[in-house]
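Quick question, first post here. What does this chain look like in 3D?
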Amino acid sequence: MLEIFGVPSQALFGQLLLGLINGSFYALLSLGLAVIFGMLNIINFSHGAQYMMGAFAAFILLRYTGIGYWPALIIVPIVVGATGVVIEWLFLKRLQKLDHLYGLILTFGLALIIEGLFRNYYGSSGQPYGVPESLQGGRNLGFMFLPNYRAWVIAFSLFVCIGTWYGIERTRLGSYLRAATENPALVRAFGINVPRMVTLTYGFGVGLAGLAGVMAAPIYNVSPQMGSDIIIVVFAVVVIGGMGSIMGAIVTGFALGIVEGLTKVFFPEASNTVIFVIMIIVLLIRPAGLFGRSA
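> Answer (accepted):
Ran it through. Tokens below.
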């Protein structure tokens, strides 16, 4: 068996694939956080719970209505995003003029409530969700076996991330969004409903979390803890990339997933802490993050 740096190639590339899978979810979730913070200046600590809601929504649709993976990929982000619209309209809108800490505390409380409700009904054990039939199996690449569903997750998450970046940075709607965060009075003068834009933007960011949840369901067990298990790492990714930086969230998410995967090969003991060590180093050297703008 071929070895690379003393490690069997299948083990190395297997961990690299696992790192890319984790990086895909880091990128999608941190992208949603970056959109919400960059456009609305809200630190959304309920993002992990909304990711979990996406996975459970796909599971519920399949179990009780027979709606499979592909329709859920469209339905669930809309439904979860709609819950985000309601949360912004009922609660977060009232905190716009207050310190960021109030929004953080509110969304943290919402995360605990949502997770508690699902744990009370479904328990702490995970629920299985099968890989869609059209994506079962895989391909033997010679140096490793590539499951079709894993390849789909990586490719589709990259497509969504780049599409979101393009929509915000290169379109007229994106320019309105960015202008509304800096000078809402001027944007309102052009006849644009800024409060509605803010609400829909929050819903879109939450919808990205729901989309990530649907994609994660066939890979991880659908459980109430799945959001809390990943959200701390995702916040670290956002801080490293730069709070509010769309491209920073995408690049850093994928890159840190790969770093984490390679660390499991060469230094397994540090695999759970390597991202936080990187975060500390980045904050010491560049407090605004790798892609963030210094104040």
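The CA atoms of residues 21 and 107 lie 27 Å apart.
Strands lie at 3-4, 7-8, 138-140, 145-147.
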